[in-house]
Amino acid sequence: GENVEQHPSTLSVQEGDSAVIKCTYSDSASNYFPWYKQELGKGPQLIIDIRSNVGEKKDQRIAVTLNKTAKHFSLHITETQPEDSAVYFCAARGGMNTGFQKLVFGTGTRLLVSP
Amino acid sequence: EPEVTQTPSHQVTQMGQEVILRCVPISNHLYFYWYRQILGQKVEFLVSFYNNEISEKSEIFDDQFSVERPDGSNFTLKIRSTKLEDSAMYFCASSGLRDSGNTIYFGEGSWLTVV
Question: How far does the CA of residue A44 sit from the closest CA of chain B (Å)?
Fold first, then answer.
């Protein structure tokens, strides 16, 4: 089945810097890759997603890139702010063999933005 | 904005007791899920539900677990005889029609503590 690896596990940046989180996936049939932000004690909140027919997507300070050949995708946050501090999870929707609606999550990245 | 709501937010139960976690998915969604997150770990898929039946389940979802959609709005997860290792945050999620986008929205979670 699908396996998603995520790096780094923790990331500390200064306010205003950029942050990049990277994920790799194993199932070449996966076609949907969301990113979730999770604040302490809360549920995962979708911040951006990308489908396999697109190489890059941007929404204000957040962008996601997808390299299908290499099977990796990345989250880019520019001009980071303290309120960006949270745990970020990448996920992949497996191919038909693993269930077309099941999300497989990465292990998470704890982002800390210092003022 | 529509959201997935869950109750209770926190429940403490004794080992061996039955627990029911409740969820109200987004009203026009057709796919419903339960995921869990053990403290400090990644979010794990438990089960997906579509058209009044389980469409996929993970190896975690064994005979002690069951799901039900008792009416047009609620979606429940029952754990028949809780074990210490069932202590986790349980997230309900829902998504719309497969072909119209498969963004999965999560609730805020129900924190279960088994003592």
Answer: 6
